[in-house]
Give the backbone structure.
Amino acid sequence: MLFWSIEVPYLCVPEIFLDANATTPVLPEISQIVQRLCCNQFGNPSSSHLAGMMPKQIIAEARNAAAQLFRVADGRFIFNSGATEGINTAVLSVLAPYAGKAQEDTVLLYGATEHKAVPEALKHWNQVLGVKAKLLEIPTATNGALNIEFIKAHASKALMLCTMGANNETGVVQDLAAIANAIGGKDKKVPWLVDSVQVLGKVALNLGELPIDYATFSAHKLYGPKGTGCLFIRHGAPYTPLQQGGGQEHGERGGTENVAGIAALARIFDWLIHPQNSPLHSMETLSAYREQLLNALKKLFPELVLNQPYPESLPTTINFSVPGFHSGQIIAMFDAAGIRVSAGSACSKGRPQSFVLKAMGLPSWQCEGAIRLSFGPASSAEFIQMAATRINAMADRKQASEQGRVSGLWIPEPFDVGFAAYADETEKTLYWVGDSEKVKAWLNARFPSNDWCYTNLAPGSYEFGSYQFNVDSAETFRVMHQGTKRTLTLNDKGVALSDSNHTRIETIGPDEVALGNHFLIDVREPLETCMQAAPNFSGEALISERADWCRLALELTNSEIGLPMVAICRSGGRSTTVAALIAALGGPTVLSCDGGVTDVVHLLAAKESVI
């Protein structure tokens, strides 16, 4: 087998991480601080001897740096594990005085686009403490801005108000000054929590001017270690410790302090106080970086639609959707090309959907297709250029791959939608049966209505090429291949495969596939395969996208192959489904690879490196 000839650099490309809103790498300077504190100055800050004095001083200096950065004179900072702990602490602090005292006529106000940590904390403590207040979402406009009039109308009955400085998905920056005015400014009555995770290092936050009672921060969003953060508490705001212990943090958070993490956070604060000594770039530079990446994305997807106010959102965030694509398809493309991006954070009907975009009132296709691309404020010009170059290369490969098979049988969503079609390219006619609405985007992309004539099949029997369609109704029909005599039955849910179909399939590991003595069936989508080709075993492989799986199952024979067949995909799941489909229809034995194409590629790269 000729697997030694694989061009490994093309397949094993260096990773480009463009999901900085989720987390960032620890920068070398921060890493050195953490290592020094962990290994050399490891004393317990609660100890009275000399080894504890230096850690205690480090914590004090970090607290002073936070006060200086956020211009605070009438509040304090408690170091903790991060924003989720801070949010829970703030919510508990506000609701604890009402424990056991039902407050049915009150509300807990929070933005509809908040991180899930906020409504979940509100729901939990409201129930545990027996407060019984009503949780009330603050609606947003299509640009993601909170409805100020709604806040103003409900503030008098609110036990607490929770908003965010900038949204983690869209980068939308809230007008905190307008929210402050809506609740009465410095004379306000309602305690106000602001999730400030995404504003750190990107948007100035003056806690001295704004009447914010609680603000939460996490170090790992700005090149610090995970598990470190802090909570700001305004002087006079109610406070109840979330955890009791040995009196650390002036008795306000029990547990030995994470001195190394706090020192790292202090260095981040120092960068922001003294930008001339910081690796973090200016907003103007970051905006230029974003424009560079957006131009590359528009080359890859000319129909790209932005889901955020542009350019008013965070300069490090791009949130977009592409007509005809759901987010899983786009993530698979980027993953294959070695670029890490993310999708919406909620799930609906098995397909990712952004609850943030849904709250903004955007159409379903945008919510289901949302992609977030984000980079950190310390990203270099070279890194951004490398990312843009990689995306431009993706665009070139995508364009080259879009010439494929058109004629024949197509069943685009075999296990979700009852729909089948036969395309006659000579007559430019598409004969179809089933629920076309659910596959409309796919149809428009593959068979544009200005170029193709659509013919809906009424109940009856029809022959197209090697296929026979037997239509009982729009919800129930059968497709038979007249050569193999295999028949596929579809209902309104598509093809039904039982769990037993899957469990009967034999699986093998990527290491066995990498030996090269198999015929591969690559069941990834075309736009994924063009970004990362399957291992090329001297031509002994075929590519079958989802819309082509049923044709493959009806037609495939092993009489001319002479090798064991293995289905392989991105991560293992689809390969089992395709193998089960072929087996259920009486086709040849197909094994499933329990790893992904990338696993096989890495094994081949290892072989290549020892030659």
Observations:
- Confidence is low (pLDDT under 50) at residues 1-11, 346-350.
